Amino acid sequence: AQSVTQLDSQVPVFEEAPVELRCNYSSSVSVYLFWYVQYPNQGLQLLLKYLSGSTLVKGINGFEAEFNKSQTSFHLRKPSVHISDTAEYFCAVSGGDKLIFGTGTRLQVFP
Amino acid sequence: EAEVAQSPRYKITEKSQAVAFWCDPISGHATLYWYRQILGQGPELLVQFQDESVVDDSQLPKDRFSAERLKGVDSTLKIQPAELGDSAMYLCASSLSTGSYEQYFGPGTRLTVT
């Protein structure tokens, strides 16, 4: 069975500062990893995904994530955040087709 | 750009009443998913369809929830009777096929049961 742990429920940060949102997973099989963003009262939008190949994955809106198999992590990073990045971010794992989501991290960007 | 459509966007209902949500996936997407997202939590899969067939409904409370995708295109999720604990966001997603990994989500239906 797969599971996802998002270590921080909230991350406050000032505009233009770097940010890292942490995600750890557990799985007994090969996994595929995803980060989704959710703005208030909206659905989820895919930021980036790791299926295979390079462990550094670049996504939309300047986000990137690094797959670390030995540490079973898939942390999300952005070098300089904007006010518009304020949202809920979900890490998810899939061993096949079913997506298992973490509990989310609320990124709050302050001016 | 093609999108997953859901209606209504918001629904308020009294407990013990029936409620239904509708989802129209991206054209050509064979796999359709219904998720429930309780406030402060991540989405949890309720049911997955491949065309008109149910692939996984292990987390669907079948005593009160039902889902159908009769022609393998759009889908309806029904709750009867609604309970206070059903208040949540109900998200629909679709993908090209089972195993295509990338799921596209609709805007969701926010249900409030009073």
What would you note in describing this structure?
The complex is a heterodimer of chains A (111) and B (114). Chain A is mainly beta and 111 residues long. Chain A has one domain (3-110): Sandwich (Immunoglobulin-like), CATH 2.60.40.10. Chain A has no helices and twelve strands. Chain A has strands at residues 3-6, 10-14, 19-21, 23-26, 32-38, 44-50, 56-58, 64-68, 73-78, 87-94, 99-101, 105-110. In chain A, the strands form three sheets. In chain A, strands 2, 5, 6, 10, 11 and 12 form a six-stranded mixed β-sheet that branches. In chain A, strands 3-9-8-7 form a four-stranded antiparallel β-sheet, with no helix packed on it. Chain A is globular and about 40 Å long. The termini of chain A are far apart. Chain B is mostly beta strands and 114 residues long. In chain B, 0% of the residues lie in helices and 48% in strands. Chain B is built from no helices and eleven strands. Chain B has strands at 5-7, 10-13, 19-24, 31-37, 44-50, 53-56, 65-68, 75-79, 88-95, 104-105, 109-113. In chain B, 38% of the residues are buried. Chain A binds chain B through residues 4, 32, 36, 41-46, 49, 51, 90, 92, 94, 96-99, 101-104, and chain B through 4, 6, 9, 31, 40-45, 48, 55-56, 91, 93, 98-99, 101-108, 110.
Task: Give the helices and strands, then pairings.
The complex is a heterodimer of chains A (111) and B (114).
Chain A: E1 3-6, E2 10-14, E3 19-21, E4 23-26, E5 32-38, E6 44-50, E7 56-58, E8 64-68, E9 73-78, E10 87-94, E11 99-101, E12 105-110
Parallel strand pairs in A: 2-12
Antiparallel strand pairs in A: 1-4, 3-9, 5-6, 5-10, 7-8, 8-9, 10-11, 10-12
Chain B: E1 5-7, E2 10-13, E3 19-24, E4 31-37, E5 44-50, E6 53-56, E7 65-68, E8 75-79, E9 88-95, E10 104-105, E11 109-113
Parallel strand pairs in B: 2-11
Antiparallel strand pairs in B: 1-3, 3-8, 4-5, 4-9, 5-6, 7-8, 9-10, 9-11
